[in-house]
What does this fold into?
Amino acid sequence: MFRVLVTDEVDQEGVVLLTAEPALQVDELPTLPKDELLRRIGEYDAIVGRSATRISAELLKAGGKLKVVGRAGVGVDNIELDVATSLGIAIINAPAGNTVAVAELFFGTVIGLLRQLHTAAAAMGDGRWDRAKFMGRELKGKTLGIVGLGRIGSEVAARAHAFGMTVVAYDPYIADERFAALRVRRAPSLDALLAETNVLTLHVPLTDETRGMIGKRELARLPARSVVVNLARGGVIEEAALQAALETDQLRGAVLDVFTVEPLAPDSPLRNIPNLVLTPHLGANTVEAQRNVSRDVCVAVRDALLHNDLSRSINVSGATGEWSELQSAMLLTRRAAAVARAVLADQGMRAVRRVALRVSPDLAHGTGAMLAAAAAGVLEGVIETDRLNLINARSLAEARGLELSVAETTELGSGRALEVSLSGGMQQLAVAGVAPEGGTPRLTRIGSFHVDVNPRQTLLVLTNHDVPGVIGRVGTLLGERGVNIAEYHQARLAQGGDALAAVSVDGTVSEETRKALLELSDVRSASIVHFRNE
Ligand SMILES: NC(=O)c1ccc[n+]([C@@H]2O[C@H](COP(=O)([O-])OP(=O)(O)OC[C@H]3O[C@@H](n4cnc5c(N)ncnc54)[C@H](O)[C@@H]3O)[C@@H](O)[C@H]2O)c1
Ligand SMILES: O=C(O)CC[C@@H](O)C(=O)O
It folds into this structure.
């Protein structure tokens, strides 16, 4: 049974998908004060919320059972991502569901500002009939400057054409083809964009690069009497600089839906600027958007908890396509790495320095997730495993100085083949296998020895002299100790030379049995690999 805390008034459309699951116990609570949430978070396996709840490092650390944080929305700037990743907590957002809501709010607020709708409506409420005072401006013929041509920026651009605007955008991370498809002219720099913009709109995430990207200097580059709109995140625009530009009439007006500190203080000076339209972070506040994001995030949180499906987790990198299709490859990668680590450890090499993964072209789409699986295989049994998973394995490995690399190769053949090679000092061992989609993964090579065995439950890897009777002696010893053999694959390089046995057995094998195996004549080494259940 997993316990899920749903907070911040996440729409019911998604919440019912969680409550319908017998294996999930869902508590719906309003946005909790920080200290109360901190006290209660330890009870939960997952938390689902919107932007009102800050997922701080302190909260993540206090969430001893926490596996998933779901964000019903796009922005994850309220979540300490690095800390979540290092703790192995999946972060899942709902990136697309509120795009249209924000794009529509842009036009609603800008037209409202240009036509002074909010003051005209207030004047009507006061019993007045002022027409001359409310002379407006049109969008037609104006140049819209978009910073950030992602989902929302693109929807704004598409609608701006219908208003007869010229659309220019600055986004160094978007390809020319996308600009062309959207009929948007690319500005070579932010400064170039600002110089020709009448209506500036920001649709970037809050990052180290975008924090404060529009300040006094940038506002001064806009043509006189331009309009500035921020529906993205507080902090992208310097509020004091914006206030000054509005108060000196350098700008015609501005719209802010987001603020450096939310909620905006009741006595904030921003509240008293007549040509500034303020909304209380309403970008995503439509019935449609809230349904969309709630459904998207709740489905993904459910699948992460119940089916270990991390494909929607933004802190597991490098897997495109169906997660289920990669399951067998990730499992085999992790187990191949664990086999290589155990065998090398028994040969005296405990400190792995390099992990090199090679995959056949038909697995190239999953290399990021598979590399994480390889790192997890190397680390399990070496570090505390409760928290080790595909989310934190790479960062934990890198923090221990392991070099991780991945390459696509045709040398392994096709048929979803992979090889994990571990090295350190002068020693190196490669373990290879094949992972049919939906089928049983098989190890096909350990070092130079060709084997064919399913790495399930426990694998014994024995090396011996290729002489008659060894298989019988090993089988008898294991039988006497109640160890049931599922598969026994004996491989040798040349008759009478070195041989290796890969023996898949049920249950676990004790250290004492390993020592007894080592005492059998002609057995040179014996490694036991207990695979974790995943
Ligand atoms: N007001 C609201 O309620 C509300 C609702 C939804 C989203 N948002 C905000 O809007 C932002 C954008 O949402 P989206 O869905 O379009 O995200 P997105 O990821 O699809 O688009 C963001 C774009 O910004 C670009 N970008 C990043 N850094 C940049 C930089 N330094 N200069 C120029 N461009 C840069 C990226 O390349 C990307 O194309 C979100 O990050 C969120 O903070 C606000
Ligand atoms: O309504 C909210 O939770 C804010 C949503 C919005 O800012 C987002 O990033 O998706």
Remarks:
- The mean pLDDT is 94.
- The chain has three domains: 2-97+288-307, 99-278, 325-527.
